[in-house]
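For anyone still unconvinced, we reproduce a single protein record, the chain in one-letter code, the fold tokenised, and leave readers to judge:
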Amino acid sequence: MPSLRDYRRRIKSLQSTQKICQAMKAVATAKMAKAQAALLAARPYSRHLREVLARLARAAGDVRHPLLAVREPRKVCYVVMTADRGLCGGFNSNLLRLAMREIGACTGEVALIAVGRKGRNFFRFRRMAMDAEFTGLGEEIRFAYAREIAKVIINKYSAGEYDAVYLIYPQFINILVQRPIAQKVLPIEPPTEEPKAKGPEPLYIFEPSAEGVLCDLLPKYVETAIFHALLELKAGEHSARMTAMDAATKNTEDLIARLTLKMNRVRQESITKELLDIVGGAAALES
């Protein structure tokens, strides 16, 4: 049976752990607010870019571009986005579980690009080859990071090495919900939604040509999709870590309360035993 000193040592250790969890929760809360603000600011741009692409694609007619080429998916690339660090509950596990499910359902050859240390270590441990890896993106997501990732997949898709490219990332719903999704980015399939404004569609004049305009717009669309996924990843990571640290703090409180109760019982038993010894000794002297 643990002694009174063992209980005190255990409670002190839990109190130190509780302070660490509270500090990590406070840091994650501050970072989450900043990441969420950046995500909400970027969503309108991504939405309007899709709308512009839809209108231009309809106005351009039959325009050929390597990123619009649809081929039989003999080789599919999955860009798996995870966090660089853990201590965020099942955030990374849910993303990797979806990635393995998508890989298992793919009938063709699979290529992997890992974004984040957790995903890279996961695939390395299982000896799964990766065409590229991107880690250490930092707390502030910059568009240059998305451009580097997009450059790799655009070049390989244009060269015919990939027949389809999917992004696997967490969609930020709210602080408590981050839904892992798989989004197809290549080949680019322009959205087919109709313009919200009523009346005839505007007439577009392309300068120098429709091919030239789409040649600049389509890579930008891929880069924006990756940048948006990175922002979703960062906001979801901090939200999941904040929730996990809050749960850990509450768990340590429960453990401390239970251990304190047990410690008081042990101390009361020792006091009672000492009192019985004293009473027994006094009774023996009187007799």
